[in-house]
Design goal:
There is one protein chain. The protein is 44% helix and 16% strand. It has 265 residues and is an alpha/beta fold. It has a single domain, classed as Alpha-Beta Barrel (TIM Barrel). The protein has an 8-stranded parallel barrel, surrounded by 5 helices. Helix 1 packs parallel to helix 2 and helix 7 runs parallel beside helix 8. The radius of gyration is 17 Å and the shape is globular.
Length: 265
């Protein structure tokens, strides 16, 4: 079954316990815990051993298993710590971007060398490193995503397919999903109003508010038998609890209704 979750960065102004309680009330199946340095560190990689029992206790209390974490860094030392933490906390997926620059072949080669080494590290810890196409990065669309998968060719690597970035690359995510589904291990999801480069203010990233064919995207998931995590990731300024909860609840209702209509939930 497709599992719906929320990246806790949406609740970055609050503690992880407060975020988990709100996410559970909205109906989600699990949580992606943010470990983004300088933005939201609900998982503090420098102190994860001290946090371990508390974080696992919160997830058990609210019935919210860890679906993934977002580290958003290619720093090897930081990621080695993340892989160790995830192995202990039973977090299966670590999400990052490729880094590098769009359209720069040397930058792409360098990014692949880094990702290849990191994927091997992830595999050694029994977790999956997922990389998503990102506006402005070396991997930014379907073509470069497929090149990454072919170049790295590692069991430790997965694709994080974020429709908002594919949309801003001028592609239709509902059509392109089938091209990368065999390598997909995670989905970051949000809507997007317009062609970017920004996905828009947080409220407009709520699923159903923008221009992406999310029904078609979920239909493509179902047709391809995708059964991994789908985590709402909304980036922007710190929000109040009512603002963040409204985005999470609206998005859950929209996604859940689609999945029910598709008889996938």
């Amino acid at each position: 079954m497709i599992k719906l979750g929320v990246n806790s960065v949406l609740f970055k102004a609050f503690s992880f316990r407060e975020a988990a309680e709100a996410i559970k009330r909205c109906g989600y199946d699990g949580v992606e815990i943010s470990a983004i340095e300088g933005m939201c560190e609900h998982l503090n990689l420098a102190k994860w051993k001290l946090q371990k029992s508390e974080l696992m206790g919160i997830c058990e209390e609210y019935g919210l298993p860890f679906l993934s974490t977002e580290v958003a860094s290619r720093d090897r030392n930081r990621l080695l710590t993340a892989f160790e933490a995830c192995a202990e906390l039973k977090i299966p997926v670590v999400n990052i971007g490729s880094g590098g620059k769009t359209g720069d072949e040397e930058s792409f080669r360098e990014a692949m060398e880094i990702i290849s080494a990191l994927a091997a590290d992830a595999e050694s810890f029994g977790v999956t490193l997922c990389v998503k196409a990102h506006v402005g990065a070396a991997v930014y669309n379907t073509e470069t995503t497929l090149r990454m998968v072919e170049t790295v060719n590692s069991k430790g690597l997965g694709v994080d397919m974020d429709p908002s970035h594919i949309h801003r690359a001028g592609e239709n995510p509902a059509t392109e999903l089938a091209n990368v589904i065999s390598a997909m291990k995670h989905i970051h999801i949000r809507d997007c109003k317009g062609e970017g480069p920004s996905p828009g203010e947080p409220a407009l990233q709520a699923c159903g508010r923008g221009d992406i064919d999310l029904f078609g995207y979920f239909e493509a998931m179902k047709n391809a038998d995708y059964d991994g995590p789908v985590c709402l990731e909304v980036i922007g300024p710190a929000l109040s609890m009512p603002e963040a909860t409204a985005i999470a609840a609206e998005s859950y209702g929209y996604m859940n209704a689609i999945l029910k209509r598709l008889k996938a939930r």
